[in-house]
Each structure stands twice: as C-alpha cells, then as structure tokens.
C-alpha cells in the first residue's frame, strides 16, 4: 500500500499562503495544490480529494483507503501501464464498486480524462450506479463538481446514463444492449458483475470479447472486469481470474508473523454440551464463540486482531499474467464491517446449511458466492472428458457398425460455418456417432458454396459394416439465428423440392421451465396465414426442439444420470469412435445444469465459461431428428426387418435411399395437427425424382 503524499495532508490554511516561503517553492506548491501531476496514483487521489456522500456510503466524509487495504493493491494495478486488464473475483461486501471503480473513474475525470464505458448486468443496476454511486461522488467531491455538470439540463447533454466532461465521457450500459457498445470505442471499459449478465443472450461472451478488442487501438487501454462468481466452470469471472496472474492477499499473523490467504476453513466455533437446548437453526453450534485460527501457529484471532492483521496484508501473484492482473479469494473475512464480523458470518453459514439440509441449497450458493467470493461447485461428479475419451470405440469414421441402421443428422448454423453431427441409430435408441465436424463458409450468403458442401456431407450414402449403404433418414437444421434463418429456409425448401421432405428447419427452445418435449409437431397456428412468419413465406414451418429435455437425457441433471455415462452395449448407449475430432469431448460436456442466478430457484442448462458447445447442440438436433422418426419406440422385429432389407438390397446390388414420410407437406395440407411421421421404410420404393442429379444420388 502506498502512503498518501504530503499534499493529501494539507492543513486548512495551506502552506503556500505563507508569504515567507520563497517564490519558486510557492509556485511549486501552487502547482501541486491546484493541478496535481497526472502521475498521482489512484489511491493518492482518493485519499486527497475524494469525499463520500451520505447517499452512497454508511461512512460519509473524507475517503480513507486505510480501511480497505486490498483496494490500494488493485489501484496500483490500474495505474500500472504494463497492465491492460484488471480482474477481481470477490465477495459482495469488499468495497469494489465504490473503492475501485468509482475512485478510478473520478481520478480519470479529474487528472487524465478519456472516454469510458461501463457495462452493468441490467438497466436497473446501471441506473442504481448512476444515482447511488457516481452522482453522489460528483456532488460532494469539489474537484469533480467543477468538471461534471450534473444538473441534467438538456444543454449539458448529460442526461440519463451519459455524462460528458472535458476530454471524455462516461457512458453506462447493460448487457442486453451490449451490441450497441461495440460501436463506441473507448480506452477504458468496465464490466461490472459479468456473472449476473443474462447468460442466454446469444453470443454474449463474444460481445464482451469484441468490446475488449475495441480497446486495443489505444496504447493505454484498461479493461476492468469485476464481480462475484456464480457456478463453478460457468462463471465468467472465475474464467477471467484463471487466465490472469492470480494475485492473492496474504495476511500476517500477529503471533507467529507468517502470512496466508484467509480461508473459511480456519474459522472455528464451540458447540454446547448435549444437555443444553438445541437452537432451532444453529443446532448445538455457538456462533458467538466464532474466532479465526492461524493455520501456522493455531493462535486464535479476535475480530479486532483479524482486522489489524488484514491492514498489514501483502498482495502476491501466483501465476503468469501477460498484462492481466487478477485478484481473487477476496472473501468477506477481509472486511472490517460490523455485519462482516465472524459471529455474523458463522450465523449466515449455519442458516444456509440448515436450509441446504432440508434440500434448498439457494442460500448455501449465496454464502459461497457472496460471502466467500468463490464459485459454487454444484454439478459434483461432472462428466470427465478423459474418461469419455478412454471409452471411444474402434470403428472407422463414417462407417455404421452392425446394429446401427438409421442415420439422422443435426446441423448447427453459425455465421461462418456449419457444425455437423451424423449419428446412426439402433434398437432402444442406442446410437453410434458417424461424424463430427464443421464446414466453413459464409452462411449469411445463400449463394455461398458452403450450402452445396453441406449437401455433400450430410445426405450419404454412408457405409454400413456389412458393406451395404445407408442414406440419411432425417435432418434437423438450426434456423434460430435471425441473420441466417431465411437462407436456411431457402435451402430447406430446395431440399423439399428435391424430395427430401425429411429435412426440418428447427429452433432450440429457449424457455427455461424445461417442460417442452424433445420432439413436438408444430401447432397449425404457426401456419396461420393471417400472421405470416418468415418461415411460412417459404411454405415451411419451424420445429421447436425441447433442448432442456434433450440435454437432460444426454448429459443428465445432477450426479450420475445421463446416457453419456452408460457403458457397454444396450438401450440408450451413446457410442463414439476413436478418431473423432478431439474437441468433441470438450464440446459435448460444455454445459452444466445448475441454479440460475437470474431465475432464482430454477435449474437451467448453462454453458461453461470460455467453452464452445456446438457439438452438444448438434447432438440434441440429431436426437430430435431421431425422435421425429419415432426410433425410440420401434420394436426389435422392426429393426430386424430393417437390417434384412438393408443387406438384401445390397445382395441385389440395389442402391436405394430409404424414405421418410414428408413431414412438412403432410402438416401443411391438412389443417389438423400432423401425426408424428412414421419411421423410415427401407422397403418403400425410392421417391427420388429423376431431375435430382448430383452428389450422393443414385447411380
Ligand atoms: Zn500464527
């Protein structure tokens, strides 16, 4: 921690008014008083000039950095020109917003102004910051009051969440409007509580990356990324901390002098004897006996001793950061506040544990996230990628093993590529991966060759182990993205005209209740011509996939469930081949089902931070395609007939494409809801029109 400079301790009548002082010294003092050099650190600036308003602080008056010594270490990283990004993974009550963000903004406005962007998780939190932190600072801090017009007059241009000042501006935004921020270049970008931002805003993580990219044009850029972590592996703040130099705050023991990072495991308390009455919530625990025990010498610390020791903390990096300074493991144990004393923390812990013992883990998650500043490990025993890899089977790519008899395809549409899963199915929905891969091209352009390339890859024929040929029976292709949906419809319409009525444009269902079935026939309402949709203009309807139920089936919710864990042969087994592209394992396990912070009490599938999940989406779509054929309920004799037909057709040297019943046309022609289509029939005569030529067709 840096001691404040002398200028911060000027008496009320400053020394430069002393006429006995020599002229040069007088000039120097005047300069120092009225225009502090830009080299002044953020901590020095805050100690010298910052005032806290009664509106925004429990302790109004002159700001003092001494109370929260970790803040000065973070200021030092913000002031360090070699650091372009500062990350803090933290508990809720550690003075981050006011001590770090607001002081830094204030110092930059005063001494080193520039454009600054701050992104909050919601519009409400952005407005709260403006009203409760930023404006109160301006009002009571004289040096800033002179520089920022807070009257809100139209003339000042400083209305709402935008504040102008000489040399720059401060613009507040929130995560759903993140795309608007991309067009505003600024050297200082603040991202507040990234884990509270809507996790399901498509491409959210990419948008944050884009904003970070925009700062790169500035030599002295600064990205500030801070918040309370959420669920382990899902948490964006945990991910950012892992990629940093992982600084921690080491607190020395007053008894033995050795230092360590404060941990909850070192907090101890007594229990009452068995004859004493049990507390309804605390049981026999006595929170009033809470103390901190030094792991080196076992000396017990009182709250006062702990707070004194914390003031002597040092901050050290524990990894290589390459310009990214990360601060973590900052729990409420560091905080000197009355509500953060150990007795209160133990009470909060016991209350949360009591609820968790009754099956409600919501408060336990809050305790771990907000008090301890740690990500909560919810999905214990999550699927191990290495274990999956060891279970890969020895069959060639694009060759269906003996019992794999019907092929379906799931396609995920990205702007620059298609991601593709081809899967072959057998009795009891046992299935074998035939292909995982991507083909690149511009899918926002319907004349791009990537659309033809897709046809080459997905329709077959694929080789069966017997030497027979298997043709694709159903395809589910993602049309959920507004920039590519019309192109997908256009392409699907073309497939239908060529007889491939088994190609379905789909959308992953985004509802969070998880009640939607994996496969449902679209209601006739979606074909109501009075309210034409984009799809109906193409004579199509969109099939909504129950993605939550599909992921439940494939990956399982918590502990131990999920088809992906089943080993050996039998119903529901998911097989994959040894030469599969290695990112298959990472992508298939890229989501966890965990409590949602935005939808309290609900378990939702969430993408792990920094992970791609297209392979999982494609698996969901290939399963949807299989369900459209009702493969999961076909009896053994159906599969036997199918195998016989397949090998016979091969004996006779026929190369026939099995046909699925036209899904779309059937439903379009009747106004009644369509029945789920019957499964593919190998014995049906081929219906491929003669004008269909080209790739993967009959010879
Ligand atoms: Zn000690």
Summarize the entry for a quick read.
The radius of gyration is 31 Å and the shape is globular.
The largest sheet, given as strand count, sense and whether it forms a barrel, is: 7 strands, mixed
Structural class: alpha/beta
Nearest-angstrom radius of gyration?
A: 31 Å
Low-confidence stretches: 1-22, 652-656, 658-699
Extended strand count: 27
What compounds sit in this structure? zinc ion
Q: Would you tell me the overall average pLDDT?
A: 83
Terminus-to-terminus distance: 79 Å
Number of helices: 21
Q: What is the strand arrangement across the widest sheet?
A: 5-6-4-7-8-3-15
Please state the overall shape, judged from the principal axes of the Cα atoms.
globular
Helix content: 25-40%
Strand percentage lies at 15-25%
């Amino acid at each position: 921690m840096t001691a404040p400079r002398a200028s911060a301790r000027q008496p009320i009548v400053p020394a430069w008014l002393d006429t006995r002082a020599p002229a040069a010294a007088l000039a120097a003092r005047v300069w120092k008083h009225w225009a502090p050099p830009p080299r002044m650190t953020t901590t020095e600036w805050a100690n010298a000039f910052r005032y806290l308003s009664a509106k925004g602080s429990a302790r109004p008056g002159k700001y003092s950095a001494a109370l929260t010594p970790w803040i000065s270490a973070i200021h030092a990283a913000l002031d360090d020109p070699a650091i372009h990004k500062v990350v803090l993974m933290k508990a809720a009550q550690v003075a981050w917003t006011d001590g770090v963000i607001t002081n830094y903004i204030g110092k930059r406005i005063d001494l080193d102004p520039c454009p600054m962007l701050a992104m909050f998780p919601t519009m409400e939190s952005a407005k709260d910051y403006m009203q409760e932190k930023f404006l109160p600072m301006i009002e009571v801090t004289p040096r800033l009051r002179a520089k920022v017009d807070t009257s809100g007059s139209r003339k000042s241009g400083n209305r709402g969440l935008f504040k102008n000042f000489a040399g720059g501006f401060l613009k507040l935004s929130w995560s759903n409007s993140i795309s608007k921020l991309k067009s505003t270049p600024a050297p200082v970008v603040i991202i507040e509580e990234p884990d509270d931002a809507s996790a399901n805003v498509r491409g959210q993580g990419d948008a944050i990356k884009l904003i970070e990219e925009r700062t790169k044009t500035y030599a002295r850029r600064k990205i500030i990324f801070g918040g309370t972590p959420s669920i382990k592996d899902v948490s964006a703040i945990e991910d950012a901390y892992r990629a940093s130099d992982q600084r921690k705050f080491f607190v020395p023991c007053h008894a033995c002098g050795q230092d360590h990072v404060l941990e909850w495991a070192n907090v101890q308390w007594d229990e009452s004897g068995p004859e004493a009455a049990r507390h309804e919530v605390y049981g026999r625990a006595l929170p009033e006996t809470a103390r901190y025990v030094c792991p080196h010498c076992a000396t017990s610390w009182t709250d006062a001793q702990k707070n004194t020791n914390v003031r002597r903390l040092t901050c050290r990096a524990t990894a290589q950061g390459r310009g990214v300074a990360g601060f973590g493991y900052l729990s409420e144990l560091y905080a000197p506040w009355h509500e953060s004393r150990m007795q209160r923390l133990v009470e909060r812990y016991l209350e949360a544990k009591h609820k968790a013992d009754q099956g409600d883990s919501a408060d336990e998650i809050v305790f771990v996230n907000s008090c301890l500043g740690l990500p909560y490990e919810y999905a214990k025993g999550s699927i191990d990628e290495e274990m999956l890899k060891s279970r890969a089977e020895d069959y060639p790519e694009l060759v269906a093993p003996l019992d794999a008899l019907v092929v379906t395809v799931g396609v995920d549409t990205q702007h620059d590529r298609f991601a593709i899963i081809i899967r072959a199915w057998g009795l009891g929905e046992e299935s074998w991966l035939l292909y995982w891969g991507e083909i690149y091209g511009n899918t926002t352009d319907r004349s791009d060759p990537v659309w033809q390339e897709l046809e080459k890859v997905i329709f077959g024929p694929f080789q069966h182990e017997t030497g027979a040929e298997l043709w694709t029976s159903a395809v589910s292709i993602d049309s959920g993205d507004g920039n590519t949906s019309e192109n997908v419809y256009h392409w699907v319409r073309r497939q239908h005209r060529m007889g491939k009525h088994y190609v379905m444009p789909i959308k992953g269902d985004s509802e969070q209740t998880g009640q939607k079935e994996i496969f449902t026939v679209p209601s006739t309402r979606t074909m109501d011509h009075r309210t034409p949709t984009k799809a109906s203009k193409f004579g199509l309807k969109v099939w909504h996939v129950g993605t939550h139920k599909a992921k439940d089936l494939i990956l399982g919710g918590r502990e131990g469930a999920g088809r992906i864990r089943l080993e050996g042969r039998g119903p529901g087994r998911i097989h994959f081949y040894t030469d599969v592209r290695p990112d298959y394992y990472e992508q298939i396990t890229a989501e966890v089902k965990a409590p949602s912070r935005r939808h309290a009490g609900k378990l939702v599938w969430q993408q792990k931070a920094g992970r791609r999940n297209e392979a999982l989406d494609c698996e969901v779509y290939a399963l949807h395609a299989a369900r459209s054929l009702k493969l999961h309920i076909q009896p053994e004799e159906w599969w036997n007939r199918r195998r016989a037909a397949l090998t016979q057709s091969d004996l006779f040297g026929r190369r026939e494409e099995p046909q699925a019943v036209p899904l779309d046309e059937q439903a379009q022609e009747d106004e009644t809801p369509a029945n789920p289509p019957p499964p593919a029939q190998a014995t049906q005569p081929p219906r491929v029109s003669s004008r269909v030529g080209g790739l993967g067709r009959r010879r």
